[in-house]
Amino acid sequence: MAFFVARLVMGVCLAASPGKAEEESWIVLSDDLASWQAPTGQWFIAGGAAMDPANERRLTSQPGRGVMINGKEGVTENLVSRRQFGDVEVRLEFLVPRRSNSGVKLQGVYEIQIADTPARDNAPPKGDDCGGIYPRATLGPPYRHIDGGVPPRVRANKPAGEWQSLEIVFRSPRFAAAGQKTASARFEKVMLNGKLIHENVEVRYPTGHIWRQQEKPSGPLLLQADHGPVAFRNVRVRPLPLP
After folding, report:
1. How far apart (Å, rounded) are the C-alpha atoms in residues 113 and 94?
2. What is the 3-state secondary structure (H, E, C) of the chain?
3. Percent of the chain surpassing pLDDT 70
4. Which of 69, 116, 202, 210 is the right S-S partner for 160, CB 3.0 to 4.6 Å?
């Protein structure tokens, strides 16, 4: 039986709009920097971003609001949300210039890679390509991967300088009352530019060089800012009920 919320106005039953209710469930994180932990470094709010035609490894900005850019030099503090999330859905748009690199980290430790990674002679994508679940690594020296991560199913990224969309449905690791992990984190679904790139992928460890870090049932959303210029807009999250 379908249930709905309704109100009575002048004797007429008006059903609440499901579209409006769904829209109100999203938490917007890109209107300003107040939703992010200090320090936020050189991040600033702009009305637009584009690849600089005079230097394709940099970004230009336009006045206004709604776009977050990681400084004029493109290297600054990572953005870490004030709010903690367990199971969560994330939707955002990003833009990187030539050869730049960023990432979206669920709970601050499970990374979907963002990067300018053009196709290499029709070679299949890798875990550190755009959209990949980033490999585990060691800082070394030298820095090196110790596994291949999880490549995206298809190469779905656009060329540098174009806005791209990323949608993530993430399930956090599960723990028993005594603290032992009973289930690993999982990317239930990841869409890049409207194409399915991951589905029900178990992530047994944090990614990158922090793979030994203790896992938790919740954590912040992290937007990486220390590997090159990047802009984000329409960053929205909503907590999910238990499956």
Report:
1. 12
2. CCCCCEEEECCEEEECCHHHHHHHCCEECCCCCCCECCCCCCCEEEEEEEEECCEEEEEEEEEEEEEEECCCCCCCCCEEEEEEECCEEEEEEEECCCCCEEEEEECCCEEEEEECCCCCCCCCCCCCCCCCECCEEECCCCCEECCCCECCCCCCCCCCCCCEEEEEEEECCEECCCCCEEECEEEEEEEECCEEEEEEEEECCCCECCCCCCCCCCEEEEECCCCCCCEEEEEEEEECCCC
3. 90
4. 116
Tokens of 226: 């220390």
* Domains of the chain, start order: 28-239 (2.60.120.560)
Q: What is the pLDDT of residue 13?
A: 40
Count other Cβ atoms within 10 Å, centred on residue 122: 6
Nearest to 105 by CA among 83, 80, 138: 80
What whole-number distance in Å separates Cα of residue 162 and Cα of residue 14?
Answer: 42
The pLDDT of residue 114 is 97
Are residues 223 and 74 in contact, defined by beta-carbon separation less than 8 angstroms?
no
Residue from 114, 154, 118 nearest 134 by CA: 114
Tell me if 154 sits within 8 A of 91, measured CB to CB: no
| Model confidence, pTM | 0.89
With tokens 């090196």, the residue in question is 144
CA dihedral sign of residues 133, 241, 25, 191 = positive
Three-point CA angle 176, 181, 184, nearest 5°: 125
Could you tell me the CA-to-CA distances from 20 to 26, 93, 121 in Å, in that order? 11, 21, 46
